[in-house]
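Board notes (copied after class):
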Amino acid sequence: MTSKKKTIALLFWGIFCLPVASRKQAVAAESPTEAAARKSKPSKSKEKFVKRHGQLRVEGTQLVDKDGKPVVLRGLSFGWHSMWPRFYTEETVAWLKDDFNCNVVRAATGVEAGEKSYMKFPDFSKERIRAVVDGAIKSDIYVIIDWHSHNINLNEAKAFFAEMSKAYGNQPNVIYELFNEPDYESWPEVKAYSEEVIKVIRQNDPDNVILVGSPHWDQDVNLPAADPIKGQQNLMYTMHFYAATHKKQLRDRTEAALKSGLPIFVSESAGMEATGDGPLNYTAWQEYIDWMEANKVSWITWSISDKDETCSILKKSAASTGNWKDEDLKESGLKVREYLRKYNVEK
């Protein structure tokens, strides 16, 4: 035996001969948090989620799969493409599926805000959105094409969704979100806008689910509940919450809408204040998670971006193609990854 081999053997034997408690400390000195993260971390998933669940549809208030079984989508929204286009890559989508366990992502088309807005650079904008959609199709997860605006831009929206539905209308992966967050528009205005855009989409895509916005930043779901869009199938209505600001009153309002027969999809949410900043309220966030899980409501968390704010889950060190280490994630990123790994487990 060489001197080097003897040294290795003695080191191994020294650890082995330690008392059990000491040996465990020498071999596995990790914190409870590190241990929990290690145990919950999924392997590189080969499962084909869309292949398994196929064409989604809406039955009553429930999102169901091709076999009519309830399905809950849980995932992350990209930040405005017009501000954080660097993250709009197929590789990032693959990482979100494999490491975060996302079964859906949301591509937020920044319509007016940002240097690279859709209004200024439509071709660039569509290129970035397509990268995420194509990545989701390759990773076999669902994807929301979101018209991320607070104002009605009917002609531009119709042209955008006509092109997207023509390109992707035959893909079961795709969901369309017509209007991210109406702010001061009335429900009759939002309803009329939505009906026009739905007609355009349905000319190319008769089946895929469409998400309709609600007034007052997707808070007033009681308004479409009292006057829903008629004559269309596979529609759901969006509710958004930020748990440190929006409390039980919004859940009660949304639950009443569900009981009245309005299908709800939480297409944007998080655990901090509605400004996107401030501390995370873990208790309030968990209350919302518990409520959504009990009602089999799909949910998306905001957002994949590196802005200096609580809701942006990434630090500046995060690569544009995923492969993020824990130190690349902010507190909100670590928490939403924990949620997704916990709840996105097929029964």
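Comment from the instructor: The CA atoms of residues 207 and 234 lie 7 Å apart. The chain is about 40% helix and 15% strand.
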